[in-house]
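My main concern about presentation is that the manuscript never shows what a single data entry looks like. An entry of this sort, consisting of the sequence and the corresponding backbone structure tokens, reads as follows:
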Amino acid sequence: MYLAGLLLLVLCGGPDDAAAGPGAAGTPSEVAKTKYEQAIRAYQNRRYGDAVLLLEESLRLHSSPNARLLLGHCHRDLGRSGTAYTTYHAAEREAAERARQGQRQYEETRRDAIENLAELEPRVPYVTLAVPAGMPVDFAVLLDGLPVAPEGWGTRLPLDPGKHEITASGTKLRKFSQTIELRPGKHLRVDILSEREASAEVRLSLPDAPSGTQLIVDGLPSAVAKETTFLYLDPGLHRLLIRAPGHRPVRWQRRLENGELVSLHPSLRRATPRAAALVLGGLSLATLVTAIALGAQAQSEDAANRPPAGVATEPSREAFATRDRIRVMAGVATGFAPLSGALAIATVGLALTADWSSARTDRPRTTALTTLGGLRLMTWGGLP
């Protein structure tokens, strides 16, 4: 089967039809074709390491199911069963996609990849990296120095036989490190149990936080998770500030003890624009000033036009007009006074809901929570 597969690759004449097509010398497709042909010759001469380097360069320049299939053969013959298994899978997927697009010549490439997968399967070692829940946002797992995506945690990962180094680290966690050795066909589970440093845990739940929400912890910005943000802080006094566009900032402060668990569920309230409070406050002040000015004017004119005691004056049209004007000013002043009071109350209401960046400290309710490790203090609610 191996010889038939290699014969198929040689007859193809290049990494794929596109690469073998016409083009000026020195173009990426021509370079990829040349690298591929050199890799076939290296493979025929059992120089598998050289073939791997040539094929990787060819694939970097031009993707090809045939080149990827030959790369799987190279890794297989070098004893890298896990890498070969992964490469065969990639070749099978790519060849199937090309065949669906009407390039039927890749159906044989796909069948060859499937046959090699079936033969290699019993000899492939696997490792499962079991990561507990509640890890910090920056928690990272490295396998042989390369990061393992969170989607790969808890799933079987095909590896080559031999020794492998697993490390993991995150905020307030002691670095985890373990060396494993895999034999052909062995399946191994590794529980990544990183020990926590002396710290308290704060779980911040902001499921409805709008876009642009910021979390400031002790004056430093911190990432906000979509559902729950896990913070691991040193024992001592800590301050949290949550800012969201169009909402009032929320502040929280507390002295945390080692091992303490705090769960916060803040409610982000819409903030009243400062301009609304300022405009209404200015209107309230203007109404009050107008009422005082009209009242003072009315009193002044009344005193100026009142006849001396014991002196009788004959009514005149001018006297009646003056008296009416004084009465109107006094009435307006009397009406503006309660209006100014109502506007002042409304101003206070708006001011209380506006964002003035006031320093507020909220004290959440507390309750005892018994755990296997002893008694820990849990708090929840607490934020408006």
Summary: Residues 47 and 101 are 34 Å apart (CA to CA). The two ends are 70 Å apart (CA to CA).
